[in-house]
Design brief:
Shape: globular
Radius of gyration: 16 Å
Number of helices: 4
Oligomer: single chain
Structural class: alpha/beta
Order of helices and strands: HEEHEHEHE
Largest sheet: 3 strands, parallel
Strand order of the largest sheet: 4-3-5
Helix content: 40-55%
Distance between the termini: 33 Å
Length: 132
């Protein structure tokens, strides 16, 4: 997706960069390439480009770092239904060197308790949405 795009420069895919580092590199290499595209209102499309998307990742990392103790051996579990927030938060936590264990909101409470126990989840981040 982007091979033929005039706004996209492929990042190195040789394993030399982490996923958050790839996003950071794309701010420099592909600043005018869409990061997210979504319907904002009926008949209106909103495009988030790499600089804005990566800033959201940085903001998420800053919020997590300031509110939670984070170290490389901790596992964070996140449950959220908003795709953009979900993606930015996961990348932000990863950029802090932490392990992220995303979990589907479709799991039962018993399944979630089992996963939290088995994975050794240190911190659980849950949005205030009624479905959660």
């Amino acid at each position: 997706q982007g091979v033929d795009s005039t706004t996209f420069t492929p990042p190195p895919l040789d394993g030399s960069l982490t996923i958050p580092e790839i996003y950071e590199a794309q701010v420099k290499n592909s600043p005018n390439h869409p990061f997210f595209v979504f319907a904002e209102y009926p008949r209106k499309v909103r495009t988030v480009y790499y600089p804005e998307g990566v800033q959201a990742i940085r903001n998420a990392a800053r919020i997590v770092e300031s509110h939670y103790s984070c170290c490389k051996d901790q596992v964070y579990q996140w449950m959220l239904t908003d795709t953009i927030s979900y993606s930015c938060l996961i990348a932000g936590i990863m950029s802090l060197g932490c392990t992220v264990f995303p979990i589907s909101t479709r799991n039962s409470p018993l399944a979630i308790a089992h996963l939290v126990s088995k994975m050794g989840v240190f911190q659980l981040l849950v949005s205030p949405e009624p479905a959660l």
